[in-house]
Structures are given as C-alpha cells and as structure tokens.
Amino acid sequence: MKQTDQWRPTPAHARAVLAGLLLSVTAVLARRPDLLVTATPFAVAAAWAVLLRPVESPVVRHSVGHHTVREGQATTWHIHVDDPDGRVDDVVAALDPPAWVDRKPADGQTVVSLADDGSEPLAMVVRPSRWGCHQVGPALVVASSALGGFRWASRPWIQQQRLVALPVPTPFDAAAPPVHVPGLVGVNRSPRYGSGTEFASIRPFQLGDRLKRIHWGHSLRTGDLHVTTTWADHDRHVVLMLDAFHDVGESGGIEGRASSLDISVRAAAAIAEHFARVGDRVALTMIGARGAQRVPPGAGFRHLRRLLEVMASVEPANAEHDDGRLPPGLPPGALVVMLSPLTSPRSLQRATMIADRGMSVIVIDCLPPDITDEQAGDPYVALAWRVEVLKREHQIRVAREAGVAVVPWRGPGSIDLVLRGLQRRSGSGAGRSR
Predict the structure, then answer these.
(1) Domain segments of the chain as ranges
(2) d(CA 243, CA 341)
(3) DSSP 378-412
(4) H or E segment to which residue 74 belongs
(5) How far is CA 174 from the centre of its chain?
(6) Domain topology for 59-166
(7) In 171-201, which positions are buried (b, 16+ CB within 10 angstroms) versus exposed (e)?
(8) What is the rounded distance in angstroms from the CA atom of residue 414 to the CA atom of residue 61?
(9) pTM score of the predicted model
(10) CA-CA distance, 292 to 286, in Å (whole number)?
(11) 367 near 410, Cβ under 8 Å?
C-alpha cells in the first residue's frame, strides 16, 4: 500500500545541525580554531544526511503466512518494505499485542537493515493461544535514512490482518462405527431390510429377488429356493446444537483453564471431526450466539472445515431471556447432540422437547468441573455457585427420568455408552418390525 507521509528530520539530526552551528559561530566570534575543528564532524554528518535524504516514500506491505491455523499453532507475520530510492538504511516494525495472540519476540518489535538488500522482509512469529477470529495489528513501521538523519513512519491503523484460529478437537472416540471403508456411503446399519452388507436372515425366494442372494446350502437342504436378506445401510444425520448464551468461567487459552464455551467448541469440533471422517452428515446449529448461524448438513473434509470456521466465529450473546423454542431444521430420525453448560433450565427443557418428537438426544454437560474453585476467593460467590450446582443436579435428574441422556464431557468415551444404547434400541426395533 502506498504511504503518503513525508520524510521528517529526526531529533538527532536537528541536534547535530544545532551543535554544528553553535560551535561554528562560537569559534568565529571567539577566534577558537579548536572549536571549529570540533564542529566540523557535526556539520559534515548533517550535510551528508541531507544529501542522502530519500525523496519517495517507501511502500509497505503486510501479510500473514497462513490466515487459518489451529489454536496453539504459529505462523509468520511478514512486512515487506520496498524502497524506490534505495536510500533507506534501517527499518523497525512494532506490532501491538492482540488479544489471545502471542508474539515472538515478546515485545513485538523487529528490526532489519536494508543497506545491502532493499527488499529484505521483516518477520515476526505470531501464535494464537485461543480459538476465534483475531485481528493481527495495527502495526507501526518506521524507516530511517543514512546516519539517522530523516525518519518516515507508516499509518498503523490501516495495517490489520485477519487470523482465524480453528478449535483444536479434544481427544474423542465413539463406539460406532469403528471402521470406515474409503468410498463407501452409508456405513451405519438401518433398522429396515434392504441392500446392505450386514447379514439379517434367510427367507424363501420371492419374485424380484436377485440371483446372487440365493443361499444354495439352505436351498439344497430344504428343496426350495431361499435367499439371504441384509440390513440396509444409511448415513447417520448428526445435528450439533451449541448453546452460546453464556460463557461460564475464565478462559486461559489452549494451555490454561477452559471456560464453558471452550469446552463446548472443542468438544463439538471433536464430535464433528469423528462423524465427518466416517462419512456421516453433520449439521451445526447455534443457540444464543451473536449473529446466530446455522450450517446445513453435509459430509466430507471441506464441510468439516466450514464447520470449524463457523465454530471459531461464535460469540456469546449474553442474553438474559431465552424463549426455549426449538431451532428450525431438525429432521426426524436425526441424532441431536446438545453441548451446553446447563446454567438455565431452558436448555434441558429444549432437549426434552426434541426427545418428545422421537429424535435421539444426547446432552453434553460442558460446565467446567472446577467452577466453584475459581471463585474460592469470594465466599459468597462460591456459595452461590454451589447452590447453582445443586439446582443443576436436580434438573439433570429430572431430564434423565424423562429419557434424555445427560453426560459430562470427559474426552474419549464420553458418549460411547449412550451410542451403544441407541444402537441396541434401533436393532431391537428392527427385529420387532419384522
């Protein structure tokens, strides 16, 4: 970007000119040749700096090596300075400390000499310590001419770069499906018979059955043609429902304590990555987020990338009122995974309403387990949190009695038992439907 600021004399250059003039005038008036000899270096340096003063303003371009990284990963912030006159000696860049972005060097300043190569870039390592959309900048670039005579400064308020830090999925593994064959669509067993891969039963041959389904061993023993039947395969439809009304607790970044929104976003990223890898369709619905967003169902790694980018942009609305209405776009037969700190009874009521519609619901409790320890310094706040935790336990017990599975997030194996129960229920339902 072209800068319009002009080169201005530095305080050192002004002092050198003033010292040379004073010493020269004093030497003439006092007839002191020694003072004239002392003033000569100041006068020569000032005159040389004026002769080498740049005319054109340098062109500064800022760029980030990777605009999208994972939280905790580092990238490089580059500053390219193009000097049309070739008279710039040194360039200094200073980067303001953005929130949740670490810098290296820690003071956010870097310097380079352009005396040998006018296109040498400056570089600084930036590392987002928490998921989200960060603005790297503003940055101030200062260039100086020969002997530090003149200085040029860029405009810092126009040099910002957007850096998206995707959430790092916490370790997670689910019970089903454990194996995924590349290129296979529909890896989950349907409760209905159809053209699949898992054996169901043997029945007499009917008009329209494929010949390759004939079970010759059973047919020879009974004297009548019999065929094998299989369970149909289908893609599971998973809806991630992220409760972002409030962010409970303090966040310490990727290496510190996790708030409720940290746990929710990282758990949602882990669940989305797991089901996307096995070919299931995953959708995302935000509840209470500022500028509520919804991602329609899809599959594949490109869809997973979109899900993570939307999760990284979530901001809590801190709304005081929750109407408890169900979000649109919940298809029948979907597996709904709600991630919430459960600080409001509306969340469990919403999960109960979804379960009453016949959909499978799993509620993941994302309240930090040490929330009462964080408020240990204030006994009244800690006591209020203990009372709130007791209310939550009662509401969770009522929801479980209504058939809603509520589990705390513990990483690997958090929802394995619930998924196994859903599979057994679907399998028994299939056997009864026969």
Answers:
(1) 8-51, 59-166, 188-234, 237-433
(2) 8
(3) SHHHHHHHHHHHHHHHHHHHHHHHTT-EEEE--ST
(4) none
(5) 23
(6) Immunoglobulin-like (2.60.40)
(7) ebebeebeeeeeeeebbbbbbebeebeeebe
(8) 48
(9) 0.73
(10) 6
(11) no
Token look-up 């964080």 returns 374
Q: Give the SS3 label for residue 359.
A: coil
For 285, the token pair is 């619905």
CATH topology of domain 237-433: Rossmann fold (3.40.50)
Each residue's pLDDT expressed in tens, for the chain with a length of 434 residues: 444 467 887 777 677 777 777 777 777 787 777 777 777 777 777 777 777 788 888 888 888 888 899 998 999 988 888 887 777 888 888 888 788 899 988 888 888 877 655 555 788 899 999 999 888 877 888 888 877 788 888 876 556 788 999 998 877 665 544 333 333 344 555 555 555 566 778 889 888 788 888 888 888 888 889 988 876 555 578 899 998 888 888 888 888 888 999 999 999 998 898 888 877 889 999 887 776 678 888 888 889 999 999 999 888 876 555 666 677 767 777 889 999 998 888 888 888 888 888 788 899 999 888 777 666 667 777 788 788 888 888 888 888 888 888 888 887 777 777 777 766 665 544 433 33
Place of tokens 């395969």: 233
Phi, psi at residue 198, to the nearest 5°? -95, 130
How many residues make up the chain in this entry?
434
Who contacts 102 (Cβ-Cβ below 8 Å, separation ≥6)? 126, 127, 128, 129
Beta-carbon contacts of residue 76 (< 8 Å; ≥ 6 apart): 64, 65, 123, 124, 125, 126
